[in-house]
Design brief:
This protein is of the alpha+beta class. It has one domain: Beta Barrel (Lipocalin). About 17% of the residues have low confidence. Helix content is 23%, strand content 37%. Strands 1, 2, 3, 4, 5, 6, 7, 8, 9 and 10 form a ten-stranded antiparallel sheet that branches.
Length: 147
């Protein structure tokens, strides 16, 4: 009778040990809380160029989120747009802004930033940094929390 019990108990025990492995861990989780975007001035530090290179940004591009809209300085002008976020997914409505000319590097930085912002599909906050990714998951905008 004992060998039959072992044949039943061993598979049950192995199954019980394997179940926690199926659940994964929280390490590397992409779960994000959209409320973490709010109440912070995010300063753009890097963005992806048209050629796919990383460009350091030092012209004062900023973003502030209030739960339904984003606003800030786009390098030369003020901008605002609505957004919707659920988990790590985010999408922006039409982006509106002032129209003054500022010269370089503000004008080209602004044009590229607004283009990339319109193509964002997700975000990830880690500590005092935020990455915004295009719809394929490639990081295109990098922010840090302002002082």
């Amino acid at each position: 009778m004992r060998p039959a019990r072992a044949l039943v108990l061993v598979p049950l025990l192995l199954s019980a040990l394997a179940l926690p492995a199926c659940g994964g861990s929280d390490e590397g989780s992409t779960e994000q809380n959209p409320a973490d975007l709010e109440g912070v001035s995010w300063i753009l530090t890097q963005m992806t160029t048209v050629g796919g290179q990383t460009q350091i940004v030092d012209v004062g591009v900023s973003a502030q989120f209030d739960g339904s809209s984003i606003s800030g300085n786009s390098g030369c002008n003020q901008y605002h747009a609505t957004y919707e976020a659920q988990g790590a997914n985010i999408s922006f409505g039409p982006i509106a802004g002032t129209k003054k000319l500022c010269g370089e590097p503000g004008d080209s930085t602004e044009t590229r930033y607004l283009q990339l912002l319109g193509d964002v599909g997700s975000f990830r906050i880690s500590g005092r940094s935020m990455s915004m990714n295009d719809t394929s998951g490639t990081p295109v905008l990098q922010f840090s929390q302002g002082g």
